[in-house]
Specification:
By secondary structure, the protein is α/β, with parallel strands linked by helices. It is about 45% helix and about 20% strand. The strands form 2 sheets. It has a 5-stranded parallel beta sheet, sandwiched between helices. Strands 4-3-6-5 form a 4-stranded mixed beta sheet. The radius of gyration is 17 Å and the shape is globular.
Length: about 200
């Protein structure tokens, strides 16, 4: 099981993370996209078990108490988390595992999987992010203001990431994103080096 097969992406809501991931799936098929559990309400067009596992507050608290989550966080008054078993199963199958989590989740995942590659995806500035959030018309003004404040706090953690993509030109950003993801196949780790040495002769 190679934990270097893990890609963690984080960044403000509206920075284009979902669009980059959706295009990535057109190029690579050996990817397991980590599906989080959440107490958030289901939006129009979302499917349970595809976009999220939608669970009750009680179910989520039970998962925390039983240490089932690899990482979890409270965001916008809702809980989000990832169960560790599903990730380990995907790694055992040799898949690339892709996470889309907040910066707190990135820190938690790196504690479990130190060889994971992390990518921070953002807009060039807050004004462009605000414009994108308003254009997609999914949130009211209060929610947008909350997301902008959260985004400013998230950007302060950018130095903790291996790569940064400023998503100004989508095609340029995707080329970089695809290159980073492909590179993990060749990423060296201590355990990989040891195994190569032991099996090479």
């Amino acid at each position: 099981m190679r934990d270097s097969n893990i890609i963690i992406i984080s960044g403000p809501s509206g920075a284009g993370k979902s669009s980059l991931c959706n295009k990535l799936f057109e190029y690579l098929d050996n990817i397991y996209f980590s599906i989080s559990s959440t107490t958030r309400y289901m939006r129009d067009g979302e499917i349970d078990g595809v976009h999220y596992y939608f669970v009750s507050h009680e179910e989520f608290m039970n998962g925390i108490e039983n240490n089932l989550f690899l990482e979890w966080a409270k965001v916008h008054n809702n809980y989000y988390g990832t169960q560790k078993k599903q990730i380990d199963d995907a790694l055992e199958q040799g898949k690339l595992v892709l996470f889309d989590v907040d910066v707190q989740g990135q820190r938690s995942i790196k504690q479990f999987y130190p060889n994971a590659t992390s990518i921070f995806i953002t807009t060039p500035n807050m004004s462009i992010l605000e414009h994108r959030l308003k254009s997609r018309a999914l949130d009211n003004k209060e929610s947008i203001d909350t997301r902008l404040n959260l985004a400013y706090n998230e950007i302060k953690s950018v130095s903790n990431f291996d790569f940064v993509i400023v998503n100004d030109d989508f095609n340029v950003s995707f080329d970089g994103f695809l290159s980073i993801v492909k590179s993990v196949y060749f990423k060296n780790t201590e355990s990989y080096s040891t195994n190569l040495i032991n099996t090479w002769k």
